[in-house]
Amino acid sequence: MAQIRSITDINEKIQKGEAVVVTAEEVISLVEEYGAEETARRVDVVTTGTFGPMCSSGAFLNLGHPTPRMRMSKVYLNGVNAYGGIAAVDVFLGATEIPDTDPANQNYPGSFNYGGAHVIEDLVAGKQVFLEASSYGTDCYPRQKLEAWIKLEDINEAYLFNPRNCYQNYNVAVNLSDRTIYTYMGILKPRLGNANYCSAGQLSPLLNDPLYRTVGVGTKLFLGGDIGYVSWYGTQHNPCGARGENDVPRTPAGTLALIGDLKKMKSKWLRGVSYLGYGVTLQVGVGLPIPVLDVDVLRHAAVKDGDIVAQVVDYSESYPQGIGGSLGEVTYAQLKSGSITVQGKEIPTAPLSSYPKAKEIAETLKQWIIAGDFTLTEPVASLPSADSGKKSKPLKASK
Amino acid sequence: MVRRKLVLRFPASAVENPFVYTLAKEYNVVANILKANINPRKEGRLVVELYAEEKDYEAAIDFLQSRGVTILPLAQQIVWVEENCTQCGACTGICPTGALWIKRPEMTVSFDGEKCIVCEHCLKACPARAVEARYLSGE
User: Fold this and answer.
1) CB-CB: which of A186, A189, A195 is closest to B90?
2) Total count of domains within chain B
3) Which of A64, A103, A282, A358 could bond A117 through an S-S bridge, CB–CB 3.0 to 4.6 Å?
């Protein structure tokens, strides 16, 4: 495939204010009008976006040393435990952590009104958060107890570090059983009462670069309203599953581990959310720029909802029991129409990932690039792709 | 037939009377309780949908008022707080009447209070807690 331009060429154009940038939605109609080759010659960058629940998210915080000094083994922020099993006054606040006092599903289905994700949102919104820390004392760290009100600006370092974001495609969840079930895919009514899906489809970052041709370790992107980076491939990154002729995975596939400065992010793009009967998670906004290096990159970035398929999976038995299997394939165009047909029954669909917010992110990133505020990066290392042989292994329980 | 959604306020002195039973038995009124806050010897509040023949409905309203029950119309009791909404759409799969709905092709979430039956399923189905129940009508 003949290269049309390099990332260096694109950055030169960005700096001159001459780069042509379109969103992954806009590029679809351009390709329909001018064809892929002509569009690839005209367009330098395609921007994508997604704003959905991403459980595998959290923040590393350095809380600063009090006097006398303290190790901080056990740390709570607004009653939510932050992991302190690293160096003194460093903690990791996980998005799905809930207060020890939360009854969880003892009062089924639990509400999960507050958790780590909400603490992250509150910190980013500039709110005061109550810190409680305890520790065993040492000669170097004698203090054993501490309470303080802190704000994000008081914390030395705060960075979001999400081990698994931006799932490349996801299941469509349904319920075949006779009772309502409460899942990370939302509330599922009995006997195929509804279907929930969770992807921005044609705007979703990795669905627009299905073979990770341009995205890699070090790629700069939109994260939580500011700049972030791909730090690694995400956990459960599974590039070797079934793909369509357009190279787009038909099942949940690639993921990204992302990192970025929490202090610069905006609470609009990092929202703590509660899933009834399941728990707390963080709604994260991510936007990936795709440099149009050649016609293939452009063709991939122009994928449309009608050409992306997802598997309909039963979350009452098949998923929780790890049985596997699909009740059928549907396209994102069908999902977005408001109903799909499963086992001969027409059922209503609802998204969990916001399409209008995904579009806003893609548009924002586009404006940053057009204004010369955001340049593109060459990946430092590539992500394992469809030819890597990488597999996800199940865990064998001994008991 | 008449179908009305109302907020009934019971004085503390009347709260222990079996009003819903009387509505059904004496006035042929179907009372569908949407939300109730009734405690012994305290002012009570019932959000209710009444369904009856016009003349039965009117007789029932007269009966309730004669017993000191304040009757308020129920208008926009579920409040969709748009600025808290993350526009995900999870509520739309749960809302039984399409009051919370998605405008296509934009995929934006909207709320149509006219269609809302105050079932309150959305309150906890909304991950961002952007839907609130407010019973302030006429007060």
Assistant:
1) A186
2) 2
3) A282
